Amino acid sequence: MGGGPTGVEIAGQIAELAHHVLPREFNDIDPTSARVELFDGGDQILAGFGDQLSGKGAKELERQGVRIRTRSIVTGLDRNGVEVKGPDGETYRVSAQTKVWAAGVQASPLARMLADASGAECDRAGRIAVLPDCTLPGHPEVFAIGDMMSLDDLPGVAEVAMQQGIHAAQTIKRRLRGQAESKAFRYRDLGSMATISRFRAVVSFKGIRVAGFVGWLMWLFVHLAFLTGFKNRFVTVLQWGITFIGGARTERTLTLQQAVARVAIEEAGGQPFLLKVTGAEDDQHLHG
Ligand SMILES: Cc1cc2nc3c(=O)[nH]c(=O)nc-3n(C[C@H](O)[C@H](O)[C@H](O)COP(=O)(O)OP(=O)(O)OC[C@H]3O[C@@H](n4cnc5c(N)ncnc54)[C@H](O)[C@@H]3O)c2cc1C
After folding, report:
1. Topology given in CATH for the domain delimited by 5-104+191-245
2. Closest Cα to atom 24, ligand 1: which residue?
3. Residue-wise over 14-47: b if at least 16 C-beta within 10 A, else e?
4. Nearest-atom index, ligand 1, CA of 155
5. Whose CA is nearest to atom 52 of ligand 1?
6. Using alpha carbons only, what angle is made at residue 44 by residues 39 and 49, rounded to the nearest 5 degrees?
7. Which one from 9, 37, 83, 159 is the annotated catalytic residue?
8. What band does 280 get if pLDDT is binned at 50, 70 and 90?
9. pLDDT digits (tens, 9 = 90+) for 155-210
C-alpha cells in the first residue's frame, strides 16, 4: 500500500525474490505463483518523480510481475486481505496474507505533546508546525526537526532531518557566541532516487531525470558515498557484487513473527509446509 519510493522498492524486491531468487530453493511451494499488488490513491506511482520517470518505473515494475492499481485507496484490512475503493468508487476485496504499509507514517506522539504545551498547530500526520528557524512559536529554546515537524511542505526524508540537525546546532552555537539573530532553515534538495529492481533505478536530481541502468549506477554510487569509513564501503561493495552478479540472497532470518504468519497461512487453507520442513510441533524449533 503506497506507491512512493518505499512502496515501489519493496514491491520490486518482493517480486524479484518471488520470481528470481526463491524458485531455486523450494521443492514443495511455487514462489512464482505469488501475486504482488501495489495500491496507490493517486493517478500514478512515484508521483514526486514526474510523469516520465513515473511511467518508466511503472513499466519496469510490471515487467517484474507487479500489478499496479492506481486511484485505489485501501480502506480496510484484516488478516486475510484488504478492502480497496477503486477508481469507480466501488469497494472490492483483494485476498492477501502479507500486507505491507508504505503509505506514510504518523509522527512521534511527542510532537502532539509539544503542540499542546506550546499552542502550536499539528497536521493530520501529527507533525508540529514550526517557525522558519525550526523552533516552536514563543519558544526559541525548543527546536523540532525531522519527521516530527511540518514546514514549507518539506518531505519526510532523512536529508531534511540531517540538514535541520545541522541548522539547529549552528543556531545554538551562534547564540552561545552572543549572536541572537535567527536564520530561516533553507533545504538543499539533493534529489530523490528509488531502485525498482536489480540494475534498474529512477533518479531525479535538479531537473535531471534518469531511469534504468545509469540510474541504478547513480543510486549505487550515492549509497556507497554516504557510508562511513573505507572498511564499510569495501565490505558493502563485496557483498553487493556477490548478490547482484550471482543473484542469490545468502541472508535468511526465521523469526517468531514468520512462524505465526505461517500458522496463519496454514489456517487459511495453505500448505502446512512449516510442519513438513521442521518436523516440529513447536515454534521453538524455528529460533536461531
Ligand atoms: C520504511 C521507510 C523507508 C524510508 N526510506 C528512506 C529513504 O530511502 N531515504 C530517505 O531519505 N528517507 C527514508 N525514510 C524516511 C527517513 O527514515 C526519515 O525521514 C528519517 O529517519 C527522519 O529522521 P528523524 O531523526 O526525524 O526521525 P527518526 O529516524 O524516526 O528518529 C527519531 C528517534 O527518536 C526516538 N524517539 C521518539 N520519541 C521519543 C521520545 N519521546 N523520547 C526519546 N526518543 C524518542 C525514536 O525512537 C527514534 O529513534 C524512510 C522511512 C521509512 C519508514
Report:
1. FAD/NAD(P)-binding domain (3.50.50)
2. 146
3. bbbebbbbbeeeeeeeeeeebebebbbeeebbbe
4. 19
5. 6
6. 120
7. 9
8. very low
9. 999 999 999 999 999 999 999 999 988 899 999 998 899 999 888 999 998 888 99
For 245-275, write each residue's pLDDT tens digit. Answer: 776 666 677 777 777 877 887 788 776 554 4
Average pLDDT, stretch 57-67?
A: 94
Distances, alpha carbon 281 to alpha carbons 53, 273, 285, in Å: 49, 12, 8
Residue 285 scores a pLDDT above 50: no
Retrieve residue 27's grid coordinates: 521443492
User: Is there a contact between 219 and 201 (Cβ–Cβ < 8 Å)?
Assistant: yes
How is 224-274 classified by DSSP, letter by letter?
Answer: HHTS-SHHHHHHHHHHHHHHHHH---------HHHHHHHHHHHHTT---HH
| Residues 6+ positions from 107 with CB-CB distance below 8 Å | 125, 126, 127, 128, 147, 148, 149
d(CA 53, CA 18): 25
Domain ranges of the chain: 5-104+191-245, 109-176, 256-287
Active site residue 60: no
Lowest mean pLDDT of 86-95, 98-107, 221-230, 266-275, name the range: 266-275
CA separation for the pair 43, 149 (Å, rounded): 27
Taking every pair of Cα atoms in the chain, the longest distance, rounded to a whole number of angstroms, is 71
**Which atom of ligand 1 has the smallest separation from the CA of 147?**
26
List residues bridging with 76 in a β-sheet: 83
Side chain identity at residue 51, one-letter code: D
Residue 52 in contact with residue 62, Cβ under 8 Å? no
- The cell numbers describing 95, all together, are 485476498
Distance 186 CA to ligand 1 centre (A): 20
Read off the C-alpha cell for 52: 516520465
